[in-house]
Amino acid sequence: MSQTLTRKHKPAALRAAVRSHNRNGSSLGLSAERTHDLIRKVQAGLPFKSLETLSHKSGIPETELAAILGIPHRTFARRKSSGRFAPDESERLLRIARIFEQAVELFEGDIPSAVAWLRSPRNALGSYPPLEYSSTELGAREVENLIGQLQHGIFP
Question: Is 0.70 surpassed by the pTM of this model?
């Protein structure tokens, strides 16, 4: 008989891996342990390597992430060349990383399933994919609410 693991019954190693992956900015390769350190990094502009790290961990191409972030192709090329994002772009990148991290937690560390979910239209989001819906702060909050509902067994 197949049985899904509840939070209580997940192996300790899996719980720890999901928790460490869910630290703010971990999917960007950032090591900030405290929120104010992360804020300072965003204000200074995140390194371009952060987007490369998220792309590598998620399997989402850099160009797709740039489109979700609202960064035009030529600006993206300039950021790649300079090696740093502007503060507003950094904040949007951190927002998408946070959504990705929460989706990975929802899927208990299964990154391919989390990314597939993020890319699939959801009725609760007006038939938009969660990743696309997260292109604004308001949309990202709705995606976070949806993830929270699903984590608690509420299926909208």
Answer: yes
Tell me the C-alpha to C-alpha distance, in Å, between residue 25 and each of 12, 125, 128: 22, 25, 25
Dihedral sign for Cα 98, 102, 27, 114, please. negative
- Rounded to 5 degrees, φ, ψ at 113 are -70, -40
* Three-class SS state of 61: coil
CB 135 within 8 A of CB 69: yes
Residue 36 is classified by DSSP as H
3-state secondary structure of 30: coil
Identify which of 6, 18, 2, 53 has the alpha carbon closest to the alpha carbon of residue 151.
6
- pLDDT tens for each residue of 30-40: 876 788 999 99
